[in-house]
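Intended use. Records like the one below are meant for learning the mapping from a protein sequence to its folded structure. Do not use them to infer anything beyond what is encoded.
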Amino acid sequence: MIDFRYHLVSIVAIFLALAVGIVLGTTLLQDPAIRSAEEITRQLTADKQELRGQIDDLRSREQAGDAFVTTLTPELVTGELTGEQVLLVEAPGAGAAQREATQEVLADAGATITGRLSLTEKFFDPKSGGVLDGLAGQLKPAEMTFPTPATAYDKAATLLAATVTTTDPAVAGTPNTATASVLGGLETGGFVNLDGDPAKRATLVVMFAPDIPYEGENAETQAAAFVSLASGLDAGGKGLVVAGTIPATEAGGTITAVRDNAEVAKRVSTVDSADIPAGRVVIVYALREQLAGAAGQYGTGAGVIAFQPVMPSPAPTTSQPSPSSSESGS
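Structure written out for the chain above:
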């Protein structure tokens, strides 16, 4: 029979084996494990320093490239928009710095900025849709008809297009007397803020997209409102470019919403690089392309066709033979 003393010896043997294992593990295996961990740490530190150096180099190159383009910008755009009146439309969440920098480049291109129309959060709030719909009906001229069916945003876009845009150079820069009360009514209603004199009709529009995509249950409605306004303003003038940044090309972004709408994307151009100097030059080129009746999606985000529009080929020049060459040929 197996007595209690046998069990006791077995238990002692087990604990003794565990103790020996622990001692061996902490002595024989300690140094190799520590050396391995130290080697991995050294390698990771070296990799981190290398990557940081690469990032610093890329940033330096980017800054140098931006400075180079900024210096050349007046030469790159000069005369491209001479004689054109441009309205700036700013959605809530659009970057003010991008708009201000773009405005300078538009001036370099020869355009006249009529003013800025800043849309408020209320404009895009679905809860205010009924109020906006009713206000559009009150402010429209008697002879104006809205498309059927039309949302409140479609009606607002039609009304605003008649008020702030035109395709006729003869009336560009002058107010539309038939819609004289529109901007004041929308401003009083809390839907827009005005800067400059946007009532002086523009031939072109630059519409600045929010930097952050719409989220939540109203995201689709808000993005659709932006697209409706862009489409309406484009139809009222000679062209429109939506300008923004890469986040606006993500899900819920307004540039994505424009690009995903096949019918609107045929007429409205987008540029998703408005936060860099080269992108602001592209905005000017995209406006020029709009004047020629074409549109495109430009930048580096999803849905682009190229970084910039195709530049037109310079007109061929006829070289005249020099007197010396004529004499030598005779």
